[in-house]
Amino acid sequence: MDARCRSTKPTTVKAKPTTKTVDGDSTKASDALALPLYITNAVFFTLFFSVVYYLLSRWREKIRNSVPLHFVTPSEIVSLLALVASFVYLIGFFGIDFVQSLFLRPSGDVWTTDEDDERSIVKDDSRKVPCGAALDSSVPHQVPSPVLSVLKSVDPLPVPIKLNEEDEEIVKSVVIGTTPSYSLEAKLGDCGRAAAIRREALQRITSKSLSGLPLDGFDYASILGQCCEMPIGYVQIPVGIAGPLLLDGREFSVPMATTEGCLVASTNRGCKAIHLSGGANSVLLRDGMTRAPVVRFGTAKRAAQLKMFLEEPENFETLALVFNKSSRFARLQNIKCAIAGKNLYTRFSCSTGDAMGMNMVSKGVQNVLDFLQEDFPDMDVIGISGNFCSDKKPAAVNWIEGRGKSVVCEAVIKGDVVRKVLKTNVEALVELNMLKNLAGSAMAGALGGFNAHASNIVSAIYIATGQDPAQNVESSHCITMMEAVNDGRDLHVSVTMPSIEVGTVGGGTQLASQSACLNLLGVKGANRESPGSNSRLLATIVAGSVLAGELSLMAALAAGQLVKSHLKYNRSSRDIANVSSS
Fold first, then answer.
1. Which residue in 180, 224, 279, 280 has the most C-beta neighbors within 10 A?
2. Contact 263, 242 (CB under 8 A)
């Protein structure tokens, strides 16, 4: 198999002499341009987008005026020629260097340079195998040791990576701008090696040390094209375990990735109180991801006509068939519309199986928009997302209608447990919840924030299990309720969370660490027997963990233990030692 991997022995670079400038840099082909390369790029970018905007405007006018599209004016012909010319230039994405590499490829199997090439040290490898696939599959993917021998030093100055002669030349080409940093994975075919070279180049460009940022021990091929671009390492976040959480008759050990002291310990105490009281119960109310495009018409009347068409029950079956073609799991549930002048916002809701479903619902929405374009040719699609969804922003529509999974979780905590484990009493908890979580949040004008710290638990579980941390915004919408029951002896506590957005497939869930945390909860991957059940179970676990966290923090506040606990568990002993010695 032609893997084209480097030999483990350093390869001698046999390069023909290149023309040198006074400063010692080789003459680049782009130096022959009348303008500097960055100005040339800016000119072509401006030309391309200006022409595209002009042609789209003309196209809309022709549609509105019923003029055939093939009738073109001289100005449109010139614009088309300019579009082709600028597109040919921009196909290299950032100008001449990459375009030349497409036509001036080295012919040998070794890394060579040529007088007619720019200092294109990196050979443009056009193989089709995925990054890392050429490595020996009999051993775990590891980055070559010559690249990843990072000097373990605490020196604040940049600590150079030990590089062989080939990698050193590639780093230099990245530093001077000959080789784009973003193209290293495609050119090298080794994601780990690309990350190490990019990291070293960044240290030299910025003169800042990255010695505290780990590089080795991570499978960079696993994030290519789906999780992170241009990696230079990874951040370490400790993962703690809270539990067991007794929820719906099952026990769960809940992984929480956080750097906030007391958070895991507090949630663990809440889990203990719930367990000693017989466990918590949960109910899934809704399960549907949403996407809301915004379209514009010439008049508000036309926008209203489309609104009535979409909300007509007789049309729903046809629209659902069109929508559901996007995936075997996507199933359209409902469409809700809102008008602002001549602009129409349509909120599509659909089930998405075990995926969080943003991409799935977006594909289905695009299918419906294409279908509607036939009957509403004057419909101008402004954006596939019009913020009526609403994604990663606090919004009343999510608080009221729900988004993702809507869950209610409740438990009755025995009075003895409240006193012995939570160190407070039922009456104090009920009063505090009313004055803090309900009245206090209302005084603050909170939107979905009628709780003590739901976002703490949601964020920690999301990071540990590979969810989108930014969706913590709406996923943390929660109202915590407490009341005395059984003649005031026991405490009924509940959390209602209308928009928990989670998935067990796709995105960061496939990474090794996050996949292990999902496996710990018993929800790894897709459930083939009952699609969607894994993600729904994960949502109830999130709600149950929030219930435990709310219970423990509210008890600490009622008992006056919050400051004492944080001074004990949320302070670095090293920092305190430094302060005491100064």
1. 280
2. no
**pLDDT tens per residue, range 491-524:** 999 999 999 999 999 999 999 999 999 999 999 9
CATH C-level class of 293-383: alpha beta
Active site residues: 260, 392, 468, 566
Q: Can you read off the two tokens belonging to residue 276?
A: 């000693």
CA distance 238 to 269: 19
pLDDT recorded at residue 37? 66
Q: What is the residue extent of each domain of the chain? A: 37-85, 165-223, 240-287+404-570, 293-383
| Cα dihedral 73→77→80→84 (10° resolution) | 180
pTM: 0.72
**H/E element, 482:** strand 478-485
Are 366 and 457 a contacting pair, CB within 8 Å?
no
Rg (CA), the chain: 29
- Which residues of the chain are under the pLDDT cut of 50? 1-30, 95, 99, 101-155, 576-577, 579-582
pLDDT in tens, 235-281: 999 999 999 999 999 999 999 999 999 999 999 999 999 999 999 99
Q: Rounded CA gap, 561 and 556, in Å?
A: 5
Give dist(CA 415, CA 400) in Å, integer. Answer: 33
CB contact at 8 A, 152 and 209: no
Inter-CA distances, 315 with 261, 290, 311, 323, 346, Å = 54, 19, 8, 12, 15
Which letter does DSSP use for residue 351 in this model?
Answer: E
